[in-house]
Amino acid sequence: MRTAVPNSVNALRAKRSICEMLGQDVSTEDAFLGSCIPDVCLRIGMVLSITGLSAPTVYREIAQGRFPRPIKITAGARAWKLSEIMDWIETRERDAHPVSTEPCSGRG
User: Fold this and answer.
1) pTM above 0.70?
2) Distance CA 33, CA 16 (A)
3) pLDDT tens for each residue of 50-77
4) How many domains does the chain have?
5) If we measure between CA atoms, which residue out of 1, 28, 4 comes closest to residue 94?
6) Residue 3 placed within a domain
7) Residues in contact with 42: Cβ distance below 8 Å, sequence separation at least 6, in sequence order
8) How many C-beta neighbours within 10 Å does residue 70 have?
9) Distance between the two ends of the chain, CA-based, in angstroms?
10) Which of 80, 57, 59 is nearest to 4 (CA)?
11) 18 C-beta neighbours (distance < 10 Å), count
12) Which residues contact 21 (CB under 8 A, 6 or more apart)?
């Protein structure tokens, strides 16, 4: 089964969103943008948004040792470290067949 991997545009959007949540300046270069983000805890909704995975897939991958485990932030709440999620994304394999950028020709 293949899982969706967000492209660099989605990763940049996630970084920008987190910088905005933290009140950081988002008008800087991408290299600096990545370094301005401290390691933050992400709840499942943000993890799903960043990775493009569904919740059942995340938990299945955790059970199989292929996805970062969440940390316990309270007695009943769990969260993931942003750095671990971004590291996991970097380990994903690129699709062997690039997506075509040509417009659909329609029926014909």
Assistant:
1) no
2) 8
3) 999 999 999 999 999 999 999 999 999 9
4) 1
5) 4
6) no
7) 50, 79, 80, 81, 82, 85
8) 20
9) 32
10) 57
11) 20
12) none
pLDDT band at 46 (very low <50, low <70, confident <90, very high): very high
46 and 13 Cβ atoms separated by less than 8 Å: no
Instruction: Supply the pLDDT for residue 101.
Output: 64
b or e along 74-90 (b: 16 or more beta carbons within 10 Å of the residue's beta carbon)?
eeeeebbbbebbbebbe
Is position 96 within any domain? no
Q: pLDDT, tens digit, for every residue of 8-44?
A: 555 566 666 666 666 666 665 455 555 666 678 999 9
**Minimal CA–CA distance to 86: which of 21, 42, 54, 55?**
42
C-alpha distances out from residue 52 to 5, 71, 80, 102, Å: 6, 20, 15, 24
Domain that holds residue 30: 8-90
Count of Cβ atoms closer than 10 Å to residue 108 Cβ? 3
The span from the CA of 53 to the CA of 55, in Å, is: 7
Answer whether residue 69 is part of any domain: yes
